[in-house]
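Reminder: ligand-aware prediction takes two inputs, not one.
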Amino acid sequence: MVVRMSPGTWITLGAFLAGCMSRSTDPPPPVVALITVDTWRADHFDAHHTPHLWSLASQGERWTDAWSPMGLTTPSHASMLTGLPPWEHGVRANNHHGYTLPPDVPTLPEHSAFADWASGAFVSAYPAGPEGGLARGWDVFDGPEESERSGKVAVDAALAWLPDDRAALLWVHLYEPHGPYEGRGATEGERYAEEVRRADALLEPLLDVLVDRQARIVVASDHGEVHAEEKCGWQHERSSHDVVLRVPLLRWTPERRGKVHTDRIGLTDVPALLRDELPAARPHWLAESGTCEPGCTGCSPQGLEGRDAVAISSAARLTRRPGKTVLKQGAPSAELEAALASIPALTVPTEEANEASLQALGYQEPSAP
Ligand SMILES: [Zn+2]
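Here is what comes back for the chain with zinc ion:
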């Protein structure tokens, strides 16, 4: 059978085929994704606890000496979104303590590298929410109506949003490993490990889509968790222990570099990693502990002023405890001593601001006049 086509049909068919060919050869719009898993310890980043993320890291890059600037969700995420430590971006406690990003500190979606990109953030807990300034710059900022939500809700919302016809910057935050832990394990540690495995499993469909889109993906924890290591058990907030400050950190790109970096970097390097840069190794890392939340028992000292400042190098560790005591481990250099001294004292919000925000969250009763 011969099918006759008019000249107009040929023109239409030719344009259709040309469109198909150009579509098949054009690279898809770029996607850059930051995934943060809250309270995920570096020693729970392996093929057993996080098989999907471990597989991603084994094709991409993983850092074995990566650090958080603080064991608190809002300050640490603010560091990932600004590239600054808490004492420079100004968020030195969780958002309900009254700290927020100053308007002159630019956030990740406001960076010129992502100008005109679609941007969407999907978070799973109040401390990563808009109070504190983390929502600034995102086209879409989606968080829980209650204090927290399942990571599945955040992942589903992110997948429903992700545009396939525009360059897109994405942030997805999961809260599963944060206490209280759910699971069948007999101990807190076993239930914590279950929560880490659950977060990894919830991320699988998102990772599949991002790898299929040839996205650049950075995955990190905002901080780790204290188990039996310190007196302030099961509370990362007041701790400057390595299990809180050392974090998992990985990057996957279409180049599939297959590299393990042993250089020391930290969460303030996340913006550079997202721009596909390789941060320079840091001779030392500076951090401070967070603060005891209401209900935390066994921690001493408590309160916003009761925090440690730490300087960590390969050879030594200095810890400045409240009261000006400096604990020395190893052989600290003069440079490390000077680095520790560079962490400025904390400016505490007014008692009224603190009390009002804590009461709004139901943490405490109004104090007597
Ligand atoms: Zn956190």
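The first helix runs from residue 7 to 25. The chain is about 30% helix and 20% strand. We will return to this case in the review session.
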